[in-house]
Write a structure and sequence with these properties.
By secondary structure, the chain is an alpha+beta fold. About 20% of the residues lie in helices and about 30% in strands. The protein has a seven-stranded mixed sheet, with helices on both faces. The protein has a three-stranded antiparallel sheet with strand order 2-4-3. Strands 6-7 form a two-stranded antiparallel ribbon.
């Protein structure tokens, strides 16, 4: 039920701070950006997906399910120059998703229920099946305190899932809280 989004790898400098832990505050600036709004390489996919959500909400979409698979960028002095790498910059592939609106498409036999953490948790479990993932309470600067979990695969943290932090929800003027993962 998710639609794929393909976004620029460039973002506005202010978009990184609230949504990307650690390296988001020191984004990698471009020497010759397309525009001032696209002047820094993204360090998280979440900001791009929130932009897609806001675009769809401006066009009165009541239910939005989007995902993106793409690269993010972070400084890492251990990365050497190569055919597919730039010295000092790590470029891992990431997968992120965002759900907003009702948990299910509108049907006459079901009451509308807003999407919640457990709906997305189920989607993540289905994505990794037959392998089992675990969820452990965690904190992330973009996510609601107490409504965020670290996703563990084979005992190793591979990402986060949770609701958007109320401060950012208010800042983006969202009527409902989106649930997201990366």
């Amino acid at each position: 039920g998710f639609s794929e989004a393909v976004n620029f790898s460039f973002v506005a400098p202010g978009d990184l701070t609230p949504l990307a832990p650690g390296n988001g505050r020191s984004g990698i600036p471009l020497r010759n950006p397309i525009s001032a709004d696209l002047a820094v390489m993204r360090s998280s996919l979440i900001g791009s997906l929130i932009g897609v959500l806001r675009f769809n909400l401006a066009r009165k979409a009541p239910r939005v399910r989007v995902f993106e698979a793409g690269r993010v960028y972070a400084r890492d002095e251990h990365v050497a120059d190569g055919e597919a790498s730039v010295a000092g910059i790590r470029q891992p592939m990431r997968l992120a998703g965002l759900a907003f609106g009702t948990a299910d498409s509108t049907q006459w036999s079901l009451k509308d229920k807003a999407v919640d953490f457990f709906d997305i948790k189920g989607d993540i479990e289905a994505l990794f099946a037959p392998r089992a993932v675990r969820f452990v309470a965690a904190e992330h600067p973009a996510m609601h305190p107490g409504r965020c979990a670290s996703v563990l695969l084979d005992g190793k943290a591979i990402g986060y899932v949770g609701e958007l932090h109320p401060r950012w929800r208010q800042g983006y003027e969202l009527a409902q809280t989106p649930v997201m993962f990366e």
